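JOB MANIFEST
job_type = single_chain_structure
chain_count = 1
residues = 158
[input]
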Amino acid sequence: MVKRPYDIKEVADKLLDEFIETVESLDIPWWLFKGTCLGMVTVGGYYVGDSDIDIAIDCSDEDFQKLTEVLLNQGWTKRWMVGVNGFKQGVMGEHQKFCKHDIIFDVWSKRVLVKINKIYEKFLGKGQKIVYNGKEYNVPSPVEEFLDSQYANWRGSK
């Protein structure tokens, strides 16, 4: 059964660090993304209602494949989403869901995000950092402008 990061925070924190260590070992740039970024900025942790951990990465299809292989060897599994017409979404190199210890990680490719909306090119560059549990995490930059582009009323969430 899938669990929300907020419900098992210690496990989610451990998996987040494991995931980031893996991505960094492959020299893949990464950022906390979507609801995970929103929660870290507004409430200093995972949002109560958020069902996954969102990460954006910047890599080639080949590096996405390498990342997938390493994660699978570490005990992660792949999860598929079913699209509107019943087709599987989350194809390698664009968007993939990974799961470990009942926590879902929603991993987004910067290359595909920029195809969807050019605005992501602006935010997923050098980035900035936020501190959570005494550790630094990459977030889109400028983070407040990024959140404005994603969530119309996010400032009311603080």
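[summary]
The longest strand covers residues 103-109.
The helical segments are 9-25, 34-42, 61-73, 110-116, 119-123, 143-150.
exit_status = 0
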